[in-house]
Every structure is written in C-alpha cells, then in structure tokens.
Design brief:
The complex is a heterodimer of chains A (106) and B (821). Chain A has a single domain (4-101), classed as Rieske [2Fe-2S] iron-sulphur domain (Rieske Iron-sulfur Protein), CATH 2.102.10.10. Chain A is built from no helices and ten strands. Chain A has strands at 4-9, 17-23, 26-32, 38-42, 56-58, 61-63, 70-72, 88-89, 91-94, 97-101. Chain A is globular and about 40 Å long. In chain B, strands 5-2-1-9-21 form a five-stranded parallel beta sheet, with no helix packed on it. A five-stranded parallel beta sheet of chain B has the order 11-18-12-13-14, with helices on one face. In chain B, β36 and β37 (708-713) form a beta hairpin. Chain B is built from 25 helices and 39 strands. Chain B has six domains: 3-43 and 50-112 and 249-309, FAD/NAD(P)-binding domain (3-Layer(bba) Sandwich); 127-245, 3-Layer(bba) Sandwich (FAD/NAD(P)-binding domain), CATH 3.50.50; 323-478, 2-Layer Sandwich (Enolase-like, domain 1), CATH 3.30.390.30; 499-555, no CATH class; 559-629, Sulfite Reductase Hemoprotein, domain 2, CATH 3.90.480.10; 642-792, 2-Layer Sandwich (Sulfite Reductase Hemoprotein, domain 1), CATH 3.30.413.
C-alpha cells in the first residue's frame, strides 16, 4: 500500500511547470501539464544530473535545462535516440490537494 | 471500411511517401506495395559504396520485411509480381502472374531504367547497367573471374561504377562521348582536375570517343562479351561492359494506362497525375518540365504526396534546386545549379592546379546561379544555401570565393577537406565526435538529414560551428544533402511554418497568446516544445510589448530564474556594472555578499563585470536583496537580451583618447538595458581607433575618432569570429544613441529567434540595413521611437522584484520532507 503524503495544492504548481519536494534521498520534481495531469520524477536527468524541475514542460515531456534531453514524464525515460531513465513516483490529485508517494518505480 | 492504397514500386521515393503518410495518418488506408526487385526497400544511393566494398547489401537496407509487417502493409515482390496493367476504369492493377488488386488511390513510383545503347552486340552476356542490387551482384561476380572492364559513360554513375570495379581489382577503361568528364556537373577546368586525379588512381579514359559495337569472345561458341569496338576502329578488350550513359524514367506502364506522359509521368504541384486518383513520385515523374534523380527532391515530393493522400491538402511541391557530389573516396567535388557562363552572368574563379583546387561561382544579378568546386568543397553547402535563398551577394562579393571560413572560423581553419579527413579526425569539438562515427551512423541508422545526424551522434548539436563539415560528410556519404534553407525551414518539428511566416501571421492575425498562435497555425503538438515555445514567447513579446502577458513557463530556465544555471544545477549571478565602471561601495557589496553566501568562485567576466558562482536557487532572492541594497541590478548575463557595454577609459584619462568612451558607454547601457532580443547582444565603445574595448567584434560597436563616432554592426567574437561591418559615422552622442536603438529594434523585429546579429546580417545583407538606418532618416527615427516605446515595459529590475517576493515558487521547494523521513 502506498503512503500518500500531502505536498500542496494544485495551484501551487504552475501549469506547464514544476515544483520540487525535498526528501532525504534528494529532490523530487512534481510536474503539472497543461491539462492538469501530475507526474513526479527524481529531479536528476539520467544524462548529466541536470535538475529536470527547471526544464520546459510540453505535452507529457520535460526538456532538461542542461543539454536538452527530452524525458517522458510518465515513465521517466529519455526520448530516442538518447537512452536512460530516471525513477518516477506515484502522484495523485484529490479535491485540489496534491499527494505524493515515495514508493519508487524504477 | 478503410480506403485501399496501392503503391507500384518498392523504392526510396514510394516508401518514403508511405512513411510520411503513416506518420500523418496511420490508419487511413489498407496499403499494398508491389516491387519488381526481390528485396525490401534499400538505399539505392549507396550502391556505389557496395560495389567499392566499402559497405555490404545488409548495411544499405532501409526497410526490412519486418517493417512491412509492423505497418500492416501487404508486400508483393519479385518479377512475377511486377505490375503489367493499370485498369483505370475498374481501378485495379494486375501483376505478371495474374493477381488483380483494386485501389481507391494509386501511387506510381516506378523509378527509371538505365539507357542501354542499341548497338550491335548489346545483347551479349556480361553487359549490364548500374541500377540495382542485381547489377551490383553481377559486377561483383564478374570481378572474381575476369580482369578487364569497360564502362561506357563518363558521368557521375559511370565514374562511380568504374571506381568500384577498379577497387575490386579490375583494369577499367572509361569510354565517354564528350570531351570532358561529368559535363553536366563540371566545367572544363574542374573536369580536367578530376580526370588527372582518377588517372593517378589507375583508371583509363578514352574521351571524345563513340562506341561502334560490342564483340563476342573469340573462343567460338561463347555468348559473352570479349571486346568493345570504337568508331575509329580501335578495339578495347573487355570481359564486362557497364553501360552508364543515362537513365530514362520508367513510364511504359503509365503510358499504357493512358496517363499523360512526356519525358516522365506529368504531375501537378500536388504530385497528382492527370487521373485524380493516381499520384506519382520519384524518378518516373516530370514536374514543371523537370526530372529529378537525387534523394532530396524525391523526399520533398514524398512529403507533399503524403500530405495530399492524408487529405490535409495544403502542401505544394514547387520544384527543387539540386546539388551533386561524387561518391569516390578521396575526391572532393561539389556542383550545383547552372554554372555555364553567358552574356548576363559573371564568373568568379579561383584556380590552383598544383594543389588541385578549383572554385568557380557563376553570378547573375548579384545572385549565385551555379557553383563548381573541386578539391576544397567545404563551402559547398554555404554557396548552395545562398543560391537556394537567392541571397544578394553584392556585400560579400570580394570575399565570397574564400568561403564562409574566411569570415573567420575558429577550430577548423584549413584542414577542412572532408574526403581527406581520416575516420578518427574530430569533426565536432564540443561533443568529441569523429568523422568515422558520423559516416557509420549515417549508414547504420539510415540517416538522411542534418537533424537526424545531430540527434543520433550529437555532432553539430551544441555550438554549431561544424555544421558545414557535417553537411559535407552527409553529402559525401549520400551524394547530396537533404536539408531545407532557413527561409523555408520549419520553426521546429511541431509546425511546418518557417520563422518569418509565424512572425507575419502573429501581426496580420493579431494573435496575442502562445495557444492562439498554435491553434491558428495548426501546431502539431498542443503545447509545442522547448524549441518553439521560447521563440513564440519572444515573437509575441516583440510584437505586442507591454500588452503581452509574458509566459515564464515558455522561457529557458536562466530567464525564469534570472541567473545562469551551471553544470551542477547551481547558479551564477552577475550584477550590472554600467559601462564597466564600478565604485568602492559596489565592490564592497559584492565582497560582502560573496562572503555571506560562501560564493565558491568570483570571476571577472569578459564583459567587464564580476560573476558570483555556486549559489543555490534557494539563496538567490536573499543574494539579490543584499545586492539591491547597494544599488546593484541584474546584469542580464543570462538572457537573450542586452548583455554589456564594454568600454575603454577614453579621453577622461587616456593620453590617446579622442572622446569620452565611458560616458558614452554608460548612456548606451542605460538606454538599452532590459530589452529582450532574438539572442544575446553585446556592445562596446572605444575612445580612439586603437580600439582597446574590441568594439569591432561586437553586435554594435562604437569607435571614437577626433571628429565624432564610427558605428559598426554585426560583429561576433564567439564560435565564428566575425569582424563588424562599418555602418556609418556620426558626430554627436545623441546620434549614436538613435542609431543603436534603431539598429536593435530592426534586429528585434527581423531576426529569427536564436539568430545572432552576425548571421542575420549575412542573411539579409548590409545594404538592407543601411537602406533603413542610414539612407532613410525617417525610418530610422520611427524604429528608434518603437524601441523606446518597447523599453517602457522592459526596464524593471527583475532582481529587486524577486528580492521583494515576486515569483518565489521558482526558488523554493513545494515541500520539505527531508527531516520527516
């Protein structure tokens, strides 16, 4: 069973943007798409560790600010021909409240 | 019920059409393909390297059987399945062995056939064309048992065949009707160099020579070729004869079906034949009177045809300008357009026979209409670009022949002969990519475009200074490069519209938001990507100034955080130092801030300011709060905006100074700071012609002389060092300000996003800028007014706003769970 942690309100995250949640193991980036879907990835690009939360969000993807790798928000994997994945975490929205689970999905 | 689409011809043009179509609409059609050759789709361009044993057949396959299965395409291949009849009334095609398949839409992509000379003896064994895998296999088989080969035809294909056979150990003679080789691509001097070079490699040539007949071997019964008899009576021994005298569009099937044909199957700009349900693409097609046999035009045709088959219905094919490369290792040759001189044309020629270098540009009405390069082809793609864009070259005429590199090209300089480069020679210095890696990727990953190569190898994907080299490698591997010119190139993969078109539409249609633009212009991805969104944000900002609601989520992180992101995710901060002048109070504030926040590195920048490194984003508002207290504001060192105005000390102290350069610099910086631009923008003011502030490599440079100020534009000290062009001389400070503001506004309104002033100026020409800024006082004043108007909404210091609490979500965690776990 997932333990859902309330982390904030939907409006705290800008549309097509991201906010970070600081954990003991490092930052987790929580993304909000244009149509208010939420996704959470470990905030380190599999390429050179760039902070994905600072990237440009488009569709269900984010572009890393360091070298423009494009990662899929659902699975955390780089768009071909680049290769590499980053951990993704369950996130859900209930009555405007955003919940994150730290159960890792590798 | 899906519509039925039938494709006749399993070659590159036809299959590319299907690929484009499936991308647009994967489920619209039930697709059936007929191919006369017993293979999947392969890269016909690379048959020469297969013959020369540089590649294998497997390496040149583009679509294997699995691809057809994955796409649910029914594929019929082999001689029995070649189409013998099109019934246009019943809308059905029939194969050799009697299979009949109905269609709703039909694509004819039957390609072309080699033209075989109808001379006595041409039906003997051992006489072939050079067109498909079968021909190559026949040649390779012959090299095992025979010694002597004759190639009839000294054109591109003939020479590639001859080179391949020679590399396989045969003794090869090329017979050519004309007096020079490759007369359709080369003029006489270049052709002579080529002949000399190929003779040194071991080929024999008989020019001005006509073939009379082909004779059988002298051993009685044999039906195999033994020699070629020339019209002057001479006999040349031959165990293999390759006819490479030209190709003919394969139109027999279309003609029999009653489709209108001339030299090829006649199509309109939508690739439709005279029968509206039948389309045609590729080498069998005649479009606006022209026939095409190169990959770039065929792919353009495929794209247009797919667009109409998908019933999107807006794309048009308007013909192509093509360029040629010879795929023979060690030979650098480039040819494009019409290079034959006439009364209206002027030639610019460079010739160094000793070094084997020859360059000729044919100019008409100040535009390049043709180019022939031999030995040094690095600038081929640049000339081709200028030719396709019909750029007015009068401003660069005197330097044109020395190439783009002459304008300065750090990193590559002289050693740019692609064919001479070894496989381990580094091409892309940013990402450490060697030539061999690129050529291997082009073949293995089946790449055709610069974009493909960039994404697969990373070559030319960072600073871009090696782009010309990479394009050269693509064309020497594939025999021609396939990339659009910037005028026509789509802004990004989300749209088909080029930059200028998008900007015009924003103004014409009064589009005020990014979603409005995307919706009106049919963007393919609903919220675009990291390439188009920042561009659109800038275009809208420039068009509507203060009326536009900026979209931070469409800006690159640096412009959102107002600091420079570094490799470890930390930030650096550069306060503005007006005209490079500072004070003890400012320096003390910087020193205090650096100590308080434990700044890792303090660095003096090239723009005469101080950079504080290693700050986390959480610290930024506090840092700015301290700096603001001392009167320091953002230096915009992170933005596509005005960076610095570098100055020398000028007449205030310098014994050589003629004018007060620092005061001028400060006034310029105060006028222009905060302005968002297509790319970063740097200025400098020097107090005398000794030019200590290096003003002639800046976007806008001011050099003081005794009688006033010289203004220089379009310089760059970065990837490509480019010295400024002289704009004009003015006498007062007010004029310097007016010209600078007007120039910036013109750049803001005309350049493509991420285009520095240097390439922009080369694209539009110095005359164009002079016309609007120097020759036309009225226009300059209007531009300057527009610039000042736009500055009203851009000169707010972003740091003090954020120090006071604006946009804190950028700098804070949403939540901290660290201790809780």
């Amino acid at each position: 069973m997932s333990t859902w942690i309330p982390i904030g309100r939907l409006e705290d995250i800008p549309p097509l943007g991201a906010r970070t949640v600081n954990t003991e193991e490092g930052d987790i980036a929580v993304f909000r798409t244009q149509d208010d879907q939420l996704f959470a990835l470990f905030d380190r690009c599999p390429h050179k560790g760039g902070p994905l939360s600072m990237g440009i969000v488009h569709g269900k993807s984010v572009t890393c600010p360091l070298h423009n790798w494009v990662l899929d928000l659902e699975q955390g994997c780089a768009k071909a021909p680049d290769e590499g994945c980053v951990r993704h975490y369950p996130v859900k929205l209930e009555d405007g409240q955003v919940f994150l689970s730290l159960e890792k999905n590798d | 019920m899906k519509e039925r689409l039938v494709l006749i011809g399993n070659g590159m043009a036809g299959i590319r059409t299907l690929e484009e179509l499936l991308e647009l609409t994967p489920d619209k059609y039930n697709i059936t393909v007929f191919g006369a050759e017993p293979y999947g789709n392969y890269n016909r361009i690379l048959l020469s390297p297969v013959l020369a044993a540089d590649k294998t057949i497997d390496e040149i396959m583009l679509n294997d059987w699995q691809w057809y299965r994955d796409q649910n395409i029914t594929l019929h291949t082999g001689h029995d399945k070649s189409i013998t009849h099109i019934d246009r009334i019943k809308r059905a095609v029939t194969t050799q062995d009697g299979l009949s398949v109905s269609y709703d839409r039909l694509i004819v992509a039957t390609g072309s056939n080699p033209f075989m000379l109808p001379i006595p003896g041409s039906d003997l064994d051992g006489i072939i064309g050079f067109r498909d895998i079968h021909d190559v296999n026949t040649m390779l088989e012959a090299t095992k048992n025979y010694k002597k080969a004759v190639v009839i035809g000294g054109g591109l294909l003939g020479l590639e065949a001859a080179n391949g056979l020679m590399k396989q150990g045969m003794e090869v003679t090329v017979i050519h009707l004309m007096g020079t080789l490759m007369e359709r691509q080369l003029d006489k001097p270049a052709a002579l160099l080529l002949k000399k070079h190929l003779e040194e490699k071991g080929l024999n040539f008989l020019l001005d020579t006509q073939t009379d007949s082909i004779l059988a071997r002298n051993d009685g019964a044999s039906q195999r070729v033994g020699a070629v008899k020339l019209q002057n009576g001479q006999i040349v021994e031959a165990d293999l004869v390759v006819m490479a005298v030209g190709i003919r569009p394969n139109i027999a099937l279309a003609q029999e079906a009653g489709l209108h044909c001339e030299r090829g199957i006649v199509v309109n700009d939508t690739m439709q034949t005279f029968d509206p349900s039948i389309y045609a693409v590729g080498e069998c097609v005649q479009h606006r009177g022209g026939l095409y046999g190169l990959v770039a035009p065929l792919f353009e045709q495929a794209k247009v045809c797919a667009n109409h088959l998908a019933e999107m219905g807006y794309a048009r094919y308007e013909g192509s300008i093509t360029s040629t490369k010879l795929k023979v290792t060690g030979i650098d040759l480039f040819s494009a357009g019409n290079f034959h001189s006439d009364e209206q044309s002027e030639d610019i020629v460079y010739q160094d026979s000793q070094e084997g270098v020859y360059k000729k540009l044919c100019i008409r009405d100040n535009k390049i209409q043709g180019a022939v390069l031999y030995g040094d082809t690095i600038d081929g793609s640049w000339y081709f670009q200028l030719m396709k864009d019909q750029t007015d070259i009068s401003d660069m005429r005197s330097n044109l022949l020395f190439g783009q590199a002459h304008l300065g090209d750090s990193g590559h300089g002289e050693a740019d002969r692609v064919a001479m480069m070894t496989d381990d020679a580094e091409v892309c210095g940013c990402n450490g990519v060697c030539k061999g890696t690129i050529t291997k990727a082009i073949v293995d990953k089946k790449l055709f475009t610069l974009d493909d190569v960039r994404s697969h190898t990373k070559a030319s994907s960072s600073c871009g200074s090696c782009t010309a080299l990479v394009e050269q490698i693509i064309s020497s591997t594939l025999g021609g490069e396939y990339s659009d010119s910037p005028e026509h190139k789509p802004l990004c993969k989300c749209t088909d519209h080029p930059h200028d078109h998008v900007r015009r539409t924003i103004l014409d249609q009064q589009l005020k938001t990014i979603p409005d633009v995307m919706h009106f212009m049919d963007w393919k991805q609903t919220d675009g990507c990291h390439i188009c969104r920042p561009a659109l944000n800038y275009y809208l900002l420039c068009a509507w100034n203060g009326d536009y609601q900026d979209s931070p989520e469409s800006r690159f992180i640096n412009e959102r955080a107002h600091a420079n992101i570094q490799k470890d995710g930390s930030y650096s901060v550069v306060p503005r130092m007006w005209g490079g002048i500072t004070s003890p109070k400012e320096l003390r504030a910087i020193a205090d801030t650096a100590e308080k926040f434990e700044v890792k590195t303090l660095k003096v920048t090239g723009g005469q300011r101080i950079d504080l490194f290693g700050l986390s984003r959480h610290q930024l508002p506090e840092v700015w709060s301290d700096l603001s207290a001392a009167g320091l504001v953002s230096g915009h060192a992170y933005g596509k905006s005005l960076r610095t105005v570098k100055t020398c000390v000028g007449s205030e102290w310098c014994r050589f100074g003629t004018q007060d350069a620092t005061t001028m610099g400060i006034k310029l910086e105060q006028l222009t700071w905060g302005s968002w631009m297509p790319h970063k923008f740097k200025m400098a003011v020097s107090g005398c012609p000794r030019n200590c502030s290096e003003a002639t490599i800046k976007d806008f440079g001011v050099v003081a002389v005794d009688s006033g100020w010289e203004l220089h534009i379009g310089g760059n000290g970065g990837i490509k060092v480019r010295v400024t062009d002289f704009l004009c001389k003015v006498s007062t400070e007010e004029e310097v300000l007016e010209y600078s503001g007007a120039f910036i506004q013109m750049y803001r309104e005309e350049a493509h996003y991420l285009e520095r002033t240097a390439p922009w100026l080369e694209r539009v020409g110095l005359s164009h800028v002079k016309q609007r800024l120097v020759d036309n006082d009225e226009e300059r004043k209007v531009l300057f007014e527009r610039f000042k108007e736009s500055q009203k909404s851009s000169q707010d210091d972003p740091w003090s706003e954020r120090a006071k609490g604006h946009a804190q979500h950028q700098f804070n965690h949403l939540k901290t769970l660290g201790e809780a776990l």
